[in-house]
Amino acid sequence: MKLTLFLALLLGYCTIISGQYDNFRYGRISDEEMALSEAPGFPDADAYTLFDRLAVSMMLSSITGQFELRETVNRRVKLFKESSFDRADIVIRYYDGMDLGSLKAAIHLPDGREVKLRNGDFNRDEVQDGLYECRFTFPQVTEGAIIEYTYELRSQEFNFDRLPTYYFQEDILANCSCQILEEYSET
Questions:
Q1: Are 44 and 7 a contacting pair, CB within 8 Å?
Q2: What is the rounded distance in angstroms from the CA atom of residue 124 to the CA atom of residue 130?
Q3: Structural contact between residues 158 and 69, judged by C-beta atoms closer than 8 angstroms
Q4: CB-based contacts of 97: which residues, under 8 Å, 6+ apart?
Q5: Can you tell me the distance from the alpha carbon of 153 to that of 133, in angstroms, rounded to the nearest whole number?
Q6: Residue 151 near residue 101 (C-beta atoms within 8 A)
Q7: Are the C-beta atoms of residues 56 and 163 closer than 8 Å to each other?
């Protein structure tokens, strides 16, 4: 009964998170996306998230016979103003027992050129016991550029009690959660 409920919740979770256009393909930037000069409805925004998706899947490993959790992230952001250039500095955090793979990143410049990042552009380090970070920075950042990246996290140590955390527009939500924690610690 618990397994059925969990799988139903997981299916609903994935459906909600992937509620964006279905024809997304990494590396294919539309003419409309390139021509976009301001965020629809928010002309003062410094950047605009064109696409942001987390796909979660659970597989049964043919090697170990254990469940494996896969998290696939696709993100595409249009940079309108110089104040948004810090969004070109990316940090992906993951834990011991997780594998980071299928990492691709590219910046699409307003003049139509594309600059793809290579393996040497990704810096992977252990920052604490069991906590790792992969850091990279997009080159040639300019107003009107589009940055995009995709990656997959795989975990052999899947626990049914843990679902991945994912925040759309994460820097906005992070500020809200910090305020909540501060209010909670004061009481």
A1: no
A2: 13
A3: yes
A4: 155, 156, 157
A5: 12
A6: yes
A7: yes
Query: Tens digit of pLDDT for each residue in 74-88?
Result: 999 999 999 999 999
Tell me the C-alpha distance between 13 and 42, whole Å: 28
Sheet holding 146-155, edge to edge: 47-60, 67-79, 146-155, 98-108, 114-116
What is this structure's pTM? 0.74
Q: Are the C-beta atoms of 110 and 142 separated by less than 8 Å?
A: yes
Strands, E assignment, the chain: 47-60, 67-79, 89-95, 98-108, 114-116, 123-128, 131-137, 146-155
Q: Which residue has 């959790």 as its token pair?
A: 69
Return d(Cα 131, Cα 56) in angstroms, integer: 21
Pairing of strands 131-137, 146-155: unpaired
- The CA-based diameter of the chain, rounded to the nearest angstrom, is 56
